[in-house]
Amino acid sequence: MKILSAEFVTSAVGPKQFPADRRPQIAFAGRSNVGKSSLINALLNRKSLVKTSATPGKTQLVNFFLINNEFYCVDLPGYGYARAPRSVVDAWAPMIEGYLRDSPQIRVVVVLLDIRREPDARDERLVAWLAHYGVPAFYVLTKADKMKRNEAARAQRAIAKALGLDASPLLTSVKTGQGIVELKAEIANRLNERPGNITSS
Ligand code: GDP
After folding, report:
1. DSSP type of residue 108
2. Does the predicted model carry a pTM greater than 0.90?
3. Which residue in 89, 91, 138, 189 could disulfide with 60, CB within 3.0 to 4.6 Å?
4. How far apart are CA 116 and CA 143, in angstroms?
């Protein structure tokens, strides 16, 4: 997949502002500071198109980027940013659930988990919504460079077990480039797949 163009389209505060066209969407979700903006920027070969979730106000927004004029990368609100007030901390939940419920164009949600952290209740809630709304998910562990190889393999198994995943999550690192090619290939595959569950509404 060659990235020919990548442009910011909109920051949505609710479903009314989601793009209305039917281009497929690849969404990214994970806890604040998991490395989501770094990973999306690495995938798109852009330095700072996607802003970190430490950016004020960003925990409440769903950000859409149009890639190659063909599909959207959707940056979902990072959840659980500790320094945000509680009302803001909780704003991610209806935003993400609303997006999963109202976006039939989603081809896959890439769920990011920090390799050094145990999944928490918010990660579990996301996994449960994905199952509930029948949205395909692909699991990625970030910051794999922070661990030795055998330690990383152990964390990979533990996280898969904690979340009840069928497949091993992909190890990635924007520092070493590990897993980036594989993740791009996965996204390209999902875009080429004929959507099975997209209705004509
Ligand atoms: P976001 O809040 O999920 O968008 O996370 P960011 O992309 O802003 O990353 C949070 C912090 O983790 C930053 O200090 C990044 O430099 C760091 N980071 C992100 N990805 C990696 C990685 O693969 N390896 C290492 N060592 N640090 C990373």
Report:
1. E
2. yes
3. 91
4. 8
Q: Is the CB of 160 within 6 Å of ligand 1? A: no
Cβ of residue 119 lying under 6 Å from some atom of ligand 1: no
Instruction: Kindly report, residue by residue over 32-46, the tens digit of the pLDDT.
Output: 899 999 999 999 998
C-alpha of residue 102 to centroid of ligand 1, in Å = 29
Contact 115, 141 (CB under 8 A): yes
CA of 32 to the centre of ligand 1 (A): 10
Cα separation, 97 vs 34, in Å, equals 19
The pLDDT value recorded for residue 91 is: 73
Which residue has the least CA distance to atom 28 on ligand 1? 143
Tell me how far apart the alpha carbons of residues 25 and 70 are, in angstroms, rounded to a whole number: 9
Residue 111 and residue 24: Cα distance in Å, rounded? 17
What is the dihedral angle through the alpha carbons of 169, 58, 51, 120, rounded to the nearest 10 degrees?
Answer: -20
